């Protein structure tokens, strides 16, 4: 290993090119498990649920003693996003990064919004009122003060904040040093926003979720460059901050977890999330190579998008003809099957159609600039002959997580 990448080198690592990548099957599995945890929380662990206004937590006791913490799967999503989006952004132009995000997120999302609208029009369930649908198709509805078409869409707006921050790094050029500066700055400002209670700052800096993204970035740098005390320090500080923010909200609506259950269960759950991602970052889960995990990874995003609004009409149709557990199992099977069909019939074809047209659009911007045609190259990247294309590098909601070898760095976050 060269001195510039050695974890104990006195010089900061320098990134010069994008190395060959391998698919991170372990992240595929973790993303799917996170989505499944959120699904089980909504079906069996919440004080609401899809069961005719009955308390799902009571219906599914004692299983709900565990599934009531499934909402923390969202935080695992954010942690994975910090890791994978940094990996996706490294060495890319702003145009490439933007195209990758649009083609990853929007095809399945558009279909999910239209499906939710159809559910509302045919059954009256959900939030798919006609006046909300067009704003929801933008994915910016929460910023406009318009209700999300699904109760789970709020996480996408949180992710959009992170994309905006990463875009700043992409525009300036993603380097090891700039990542460290970015992580330190965000950490300090997020704590300040939380301390002051300034709503504009909190809306911008998302302090209660920022620790997961920051830790994910630190873990990616560990994965790519090797561990240092500073990077583990970022991870540990984010872990402690995550627990601090999670405990007060756990006992409030909509989670409604009894204080006696919140401690020590919440700290234990968050600790397990961080430990698992740390194992993945340091290669300790590399043995999880089953190709079927890639398929599960492809199901994650559409499953997450549709599971919340699809459940109530299915519960109405299946129960009381089927007992609760049989109905739940059937609903999960229908959701996963629908997610697979969305991926194969909507997501992949539409992304393939969009990608060249978006590239042409950005190319047109460059070639019609006042200074005439110019060739845009990624910051800190070698000539084209030395660079490997990375059009399919994923995010936690993406389909294709890959990894670089430690001797040849790369990084990105969602």
UniProtKB/TrEMBL annotation:
Residue spans of biased composition, Polar residues class: 1-19
Any one GO molecular function term: acyltransferase activity, transferring groups other than amino-acyl groups
A GO biological-process term: lipopolysaccharide biosynthetic process
GO cellular component, one term: membrane
Region of interest called Disordered, as start-end residue ranges on this chain: 1-20, 365-414
Keyword Membrane: yes
Keyword Protease attributed: no
Ranges where the Acyltransferase domain occurs: 25-343
Superkingdom as given in the UniProt entry: Bacteria
Residue intervals passing through the bilayer: 29-49, 69-90, 102-121, 163-192, 229-247, 262-281, 293-310, 322-342
Alphabetical keyword list: Membrane, Transmembrane, Transmembrane helix
InterPro entries named among the record's database cross-references: Acyl_transf_3_dom, Acyltransferase_3
Protein name, entry field: Peptidoglycan/LPS O-acetylase OafA/YrhL
Organism of derivation: Actinomadura viridis
Lineage, uppermost ranks: Bacteria, Bacillati, Actinomycetota, Actinomycetes, Streptosporangiales
